[in-house]
Design brief:
The strands form three sheets. Strands 1, 4, 5, 6, 7 and 8 form a six-stranded mixed sheet that branches. The chain is 48% helix and 18% strand. The termini are far apart. The protein has 400 residues and is of the alpha/beta class. A hairpin with a 5-residue loop joins strand 5 and strand 6. The protein is elongated and about 110 Å long. Bound molecules: iron/sulfur cluster (SF4).
């Protein structure tokens, strides 16, 4: 039975290509974001704190020393810090603060009985399902008043709102797992410890919501199983992706970035992009110029029409060119979709002349009215719907 973890499903939704690198091609990478590194160290400290709790309450200073020792021992060259102005020590101090806040809020850590720490669970998605799910519950507890509790530590810096947590797939899926593995867990509480905010948030799932979640996850797994293309999807998450050297949307950037700046121009891809960018900018400048000139021409055209009308001329002489200004009355029919348009069409049909201007072709209507082709009463009725406006054509002739 194919088994999927919640992080595997989330990876597919975020970027199918990264999913392929990790779960299909199984390409190992040791690079990790400092945020993930901090998260792991925080989880380890909590696991140790609650393991020791069976025997004693670990003093805060000892817990912090445990955390700092693990930080130093596990720090490696491939921990990536995206915020250039920050250092590893900044993040280490941040983690210390998370531990201190958590410790003060939850001391003496006796809010129920610990059922499992970093508990690995595997279970079928639903009875008779072709798919299985797996995951690791940070802390599984039995509350003093009876319900099971799934506790999850979040060290991220973005605060989810209640609606997001009520929709959260990870703990919802864990609840399905817990209730499958321990049928006595009739009631389950989902609890998030948002340690960057020293905040605890909770949610519950109705049986209907869990059924909906099973169907949603089965649908997503169907999509994954049918996937053949594994297209890259660029997003802010690329900043934490360790596969840039393999990804078609990033690998040329990696290649060029590795060259000294003064050799960029010699790289064939860079030369193509530079040439393209130069022409594209030039085209944009020219288009802006054309637009400006078109605006000027429109203004001059208006001036020419006014001059021709005032002077009673059709041709205006210039130094080395002439402008011909021709005015013509044009019939304007009401706009498509308007009530007047519908009424006019009915009128034309009633008068039996519709076929002559089929689809209310404005030039055909104009010609019929201008030629006085129809009887006077028809024309009078039609004229109620149309207006006449003078349209000018201004043509330049360079023949001097
Ligand atoms: S760099 Fe971005 S687009 Fe490329 S594989 Fe990684 S997450 Fe996907």
């Amino acid at each position: 039975m194919p088994e999927y973890s919640i992080s595997q499903l989330a990876t597919f939704e975020e970027c199918a290509l990264q999913y392929r690198f990790i779960y299909v091609d199984r390409i190992k990478r040791y690079e990790e974001g400092v945020e993930a590194f901090l998260g792991k160290r925080f989880h380890e400290a909590m696991e140790w704190l609650y393991r020791e709790r069976a025997f004693r309450i670990v003093p805060l200073e000892e817990l912090l020393a445990y955390y700092e020792k693990a930080w130093a021992e596990k720090w490696h060259a491939e921990v990536k810090i995206n915020q250039k102005e920050r250092t590893g020590d900044d993040y280490k101090l941040l983690g210390r603060r998370f531990i201190e806040d958590y410790y003060k809020r939850h001391h003496p850590f006796d809010e129920g009985r610990v059922l499992g720490l970093e508990r690995y669970i595997r279970f079928p998605l639903a009875e008779g399902s072709r798919y299985g799910c797996k995951g690791i519950i940070d802390r599984l507890m039995l509350a003093p008043d009876g319900p099971f509790e799934i506790h999850d530590y979040k060290t991220g810096s973005s605060l989810p709102d209640q609606a997001e947590l009520d929709e959260d797939r990870q703990l919802g899926l864990y609840q399905i797992g817990v209730q499958t593995l321990w049928p006595e867990a009739k009631e389950v509480r989902l609890i998030w410890h948002l340690v960057a905010f020293d905040l605890e948030m909770r949610s519950r799932r109705t049986p209907e919501a869990l059924e909906g979640l099973k169907a949603e996850i089965a649908g997503l797994i169907d999509r994954i199983e049918a996937e053949r293309e594994f297209a890259p999807h660029e997003s802010a998450l690329c900043n934490w992706c360790p596969y840039w050297d393999l990804c078609p949307v990033k690998k040329h950037l990696v290649k060029v970035g590795a060259l000294p700046r003064d050799r960029w121009k010699d790289e064939p891809g860079v030369a193509i992009v530079d040439a393209y960018a130069e022409r594209w900018r030039k085209k944009r400048e020219l288009e802006a110029e054309v637009k400006a000139v078109e605006g000027e021409l429109d203004e001059i055209k208006d001036a020419a029409i006014a001059f021709a009308e005032k002077e009673g001329v059709q041709v205006i002489a210039g130094t080395d060119a002439r402008l011909r200004v021709t005015g013509k009355d044009r019939i304007t029919a009401p706009g498509k979709g308007s009530e007047e348009r519908q009424a006019l069409e009915l009128e034309l049909r009633a008068a039996g002349v519709w076929d002559e201007v089929a689809m209310l072709d404005a030039p055909a209507l104009e010609k019929a009215v201008a030629e006085g082709r129809w009887a006077g009463d028809i024309l009078d009725r039609i004229k109620a719907y149309v207006s006449t406006e003078k349209r000018y054509t201004v043509t330049l002739k360079e023949d001097f």
